[in-house]
Amino acid sequence: ATDAAGNVSVPTPYLAADTLAPLAPTNLAVSADGVTLGGSGEAGARIEVRDAAGTLIGSGTVAANGGFSGTLNPAASTGTTLSVVQTDVAGNASDFAQVVAPGNLAEPAPVNLALSTDGLSLTGTATAGSTVSVRNAAGALLGTALVNSNGTFTAQLNAAQLNGESLS
Predict the structure, then answer these.
(1) How many angstroms separate the most distant Cα atoms in the chain?
(2) How far apart are CA 21 and CA 24, in angstroms?
C-alpha cells in the first residue's frame, strides 16, 4: 500500500487456499503377480488403491518426480478392477482412475512335490485347472500335467530323473 506522501509499505505475503483437485492418477500398471501398482500423479499427493468392493488394499505417496509404486495387500486377482485416487497436500481428492489387473497373472508355483522311485513321474499340488510343465536344468521339457479339480497332479516324465537332477 502507498500513503498520500508516497511511502510504500512492506508487502504482506498471502497464500491463496488450494481448492483445486489434482487430475486423476495416470500411467497405472499392475505387476504380473498382482502385488504392485505403479503410476504417475501430483508430487506429494497421497495415493489410495481400492478393490471392487471399496476396500483399501494399498496406499502411498507420489514422489517428487511424479511417480509412485506401492504394494497391494491382498494381491490383485486376474481381471480385478482397482480404483485409484490421489489426494493433494491441501486435502483435495482427484477423480478415481481405474485399472484392471492383467489376465496373465502367474499362477503360484506347485508345492508338495514328490518324485516317484523310478524317477519317471512327479506329483504335487497346484491351482486346479492349470497346466504344470516340468523342465530340466537346461530348460528341456520333460513332461506336463493338467491339475485335477482337487489341486493334485501327476506329470509323466520322458526320462528318468534319478541322479540329483534339478527340475523346474
Answers:
(1) 107
(2) 9
